[in-house]
Specification:
It is a single chain. This protein has five helices and six strands; from the N terminus they run H-H-E-E-E-H-E-E-H-H-E. The chain has about 170 residues and is of the alpha+beta class. It has one domain: Electron Transport, Fmn-binding Protein, Chain A (Pnp Oxidase, Chain A), CATH 2.30.110.10. The protein has a six-stranded antiparallel β-barrel. About 30% of the residues are buried.
């Protein structure tokens, strides 16, 4: 069985990657992410075996979860990092007022799969809380400063969920 590539959020990215990440933390890039990348990336990742996406400079994994109402399979490419064997996903939704649909699907049906390099790997979802959640959000900000912007945008509106996925 395959394994998700470990990503250390504290590891310093190279100059080009840092520049791309900084550029992605703009209003225009947020709009592209919401309106274009979210629709194009699932297809690109599927046909390329996980190698091509509009945001290829981020570590991406495709979450495969059942719809909480429909039961239909939903595929969502997401930025991730790892902590030991767990894969960490942040339900930031680009700092929008509502949680993303994938969050509701994954928490309603916690037996999910992650797809990497064309291989589907079974995982179990657990929502983090308290100090663990805050610690993971701090690590997420080290991976991508945009998470701090999203926290600011959602302050007083909603608490950004952080999910830890364990292999099953």
């Amino acid at each position: 069985m395959g394994k998700i590539r470990p990503i250390d959020p504290t590891e310093r990215a190279g100059a080009v990657k840092r520049a791309l990440m900084k550029a992605s933390n703009t209003r225009a890039s947020r709009s592209v992410g919401i309106h274009m990348a979210a629709h194009v990336d699932p297809f690109l990742l599927r046909v390329s075996g996980g190698r091509v996406a509009t945001t290829a400079f981020f570590p991406l994994v495709t979450l495969i979860a059942r719809g909480r109402r429909s039961g239909a399979e939903r595929q969502t490419p997401l930025v991730y990092f790892t902590q030991g064997d767990e894969v960490i996903l942040v339900a930031s939704s680009f700092g929008r007022e509502k949680h993303p649909a994938w969050y509701y699907n994954a928490t309603a049906n916690p037996d999910v799969e992650l797809m990497a390099k064309g291989e589907r790997i079974p995982y179990r979802v657990r929502e983090t809380e308290g100090e663990e959640r805050e610690h993971l959000l701090d690590l997420a900000e080290q991976l991508y400063a945009g998470y701090g912007t999203y926290r600011e945008r959602t302050a007083g509106i909603r608490e950004i969920p952080v999910l830890a996925l364990s292999p099953r």
